[in-house]
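Quick entry, no commentary yet.
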Amino acid sequence: MYTNLSKGRIVVATLIILMLIGVSYYLLIPAISPRQASDTVPSRGSIKAIGVEVYSDASCTTKLTAIDWGVLDPGASKNATAYVRNEGNSAITMSMSSANWNPSNSSQYLTLTWDYSGRSIAPKETLKVVFRLAVSSSISGITDFSFDITIVGTG
């Protein structure tokens, strides 16, 4: 026959076992549930413009789809000029970002900036911008690189 003390131990042991089962279930379900699958399609374009168009000439007749930085020495920098036109019907400000660095560690040695000051750009106005790519003097192991530039107009 069980005493009250034995019944208490059985209840505690049962609770501990149930808690362990619950924790195990919580930890194991993500490990055995189906994984998501994805596929990446590489992009060849280097400049993406949202709300704006980017041109290689001041008269805005030739769209700029890529910048060829050429061969750069460690510690050097190079400029590239572009003309950005607000294609919307209201004033905008722009932002610029870079992504898809190849090789992925090249972003540690290459720095992209531009001379855009943040001023408002009127509808159909074209603004000359200069991109600057600077190469760290400590770069090594990278002979070729690529990355995408995205310019977004917000307004």
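second:
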Amino acid sequence: MPFATPLAVAIYFTIWWIVLLAILPLGVRSIHEENEDAPPGADPGAPIAPRLLAKAGLTTIISAVVFALVVLVVRAMP
């Protein structure tokens, strides 16, 4: 591996968060967009079903692919 283990973990962690922030808004519908009555105290822009666990899994898979590409690029460098 071209990186020390702590550096590899830090790079993967950074990639994971960037990918998560890109994936979070995908497929989210708000209470207002669905024309549903908001519970008392809820913001009308709150998501109905954010599917966070599925998005975390997708983020992990995409991040692993991106990290593998980073490792390949770094290994290919002279």
